[in-house]
Write a structure and sequence with these properties.
heterodimer, A: alpha+beta, 2 domains, 2 helices, 59% strand, B: mainly beta, Porin, 9 strands
Chain lengths: 225, 154
């Protein structure tokens, strides 16, 4: 058996190798364009910054509603820095840590014209980063001695990142299903409430759509820094 | 022929540290890199061409989260210079996991930087400093990297 080691044959081999490498790269490009794993891994799904705002509207022709959310300047609650979200005049407070987004919850009961705080604290609202299939759960429990009678409060959140879809306009959008339960228990009664919310989060924008007991709302305008 | 090819080839391993700087820094602390390569110098003795298998693993800021990319890359590095620039590119299998829930995909990996070469007979030892990028052609992510490599000329 003989081998040709001439420069021409080496050049031919080099060309073949170059074609193989280019083919490999093309293959990678084709697969890369479909999955968008980097977009999902390297994007901010809950951009929390003062001045950000989002406007939402429902699709109900007979009862049109608009919800405006504005992030106000940083505040401190229970020794924790958080951002007030002005949601059409109603305030909710959110902060972010390494495990996700926390929301400030306060449950009060009115007796004789006075509001008594049964429980307050920060609860996990979203576990970050968003990964399909992830389930999270958090709860707050506290009680109040009300003139010798104990009143117990419990607030519970269960969340599921059910899926993501590549949207032409918004990119890789995650769908979350969130259940919220609230219980206030006295010696002779329990007041319970529950709420189911569907939320859709887009990269570098945040919440783009949600469904709750008031209907379905879609993002109409936004400003995110 | 096989002997000639083998004698002009080199093999080596690299280990390094990645600090996420673009995109990945939202959710990741830092990563480690391990790479094995086999390569050859071109006919005009200008550059080394290395084919490498690599794996990088990152720990998330959320303790339940991790990110990894594993791939095949081609590295082109200037040969016979003390401070040698290089570029590298290829495809990566990328996976990320939160509380045992996993997502995966394919991405394009690229890197550029320079290495400082120290040679002792057939042995080449080098620290390298570089930028390591990942893209799916819709979004970008990247790390600053430092690695130490050992190569051996066969």
């Amino acid at each position: 058996m003989s081998y040709n080691l001439s420069p021409k044959s080496e050049i031919r081999n080099t060309k073949q190798m170059t074609w193989r490498i280019l083919s490999y790269i093309m293959l990678v490009l084709v697969f890369s364009c479909q999955n968008h794993i980097i977009e999902r891994s390297a994007s901010e799904y809950f951009p929390l910054k003062e001045g950000n705002w989002w406007h939402y509207a429902n699709n109900d022709l007979y009862n049109p509603q608009v919800i405006n959310i504005v992030v106000e300047s940083l505040d401190t609650l229970l020794q924790r820095e958080c951002y007030p979200f002005n949601i059409s005049g109603e305030f909710r407070y959110f902060s972010k840590d390494q495990e996700g987004v926390k929301e400030y919850i306060k449950i009060t009961q009115n007796y004789g014209g006075y509001d008594y705080t049964i429980l307050q604290g920060f609860i996990t609202r979203l576990e970050l980063p968003l990964v399909r299939g992830n389930q999270f759960s958090d709860s707050l429990v506290d009680s109040l001695d009300f003139f010798g009678q104990w009143i117990k409060g419990r607030y519970l959140i269960n969340g599921l990142v059910s899926d993501y879809q590549n949207d032409e306009l918004y990119g890789a959008v995650y769908k979350l299903i969130i259940s919220i339960f609230q219980f206030i228990t006295t010696l002779d009664s329990t007041i319970a409430s529950e709420e189911y919310v569907e939320e859709y989060y887009a990269p570098s924008i945040g919440l783009i759509r949600f469904k709750n007991r008031d209907g379905e709302f879609n993002l109409t305008e936004y400003h995110v820094e | 022929m096989i002997l000639i090819v083998m004698f002009s080839m080199h093999v080596g391993i690299e280990a390094g540290f990645h600090q996420p700087v673009i995109g990945l820094d939202y959710n990741l602390n830092s990563g480690v890199l391990v790479k094995a390569f086999i390569g050859k110098e071109d006919l005009r003795h200008n550059v080394y061409l290395n084919l490498a298998l690599s794996g990088a693993y990152y720990q998330g800021k959320n303790p339940g989260y991790s990110f990894g990319n594993y791939g095949l890359t081609l590295l082109i590095k200037k040969s016979h210079w003390r401070v040698a620039p290089f570029v590298e590119f290829g495809g990566d299998y990328i996976s990320r996991e939160l509380n045992k829930n996993k997502e995966w995909g394919i991405g394009f990996n690229y890197a550029f930087g320079f290495s400082i070469n120290f040679n002792y007979e057939a042995l080449n030892i080098y620290p390298a400093f570089y930028y390591d990028g990942l893209t799916d052609f819709k979004a970008q992510a990247g790390n600053l990297g430092i690695k130490l490599g050992i190569g051996y000329e066969l």
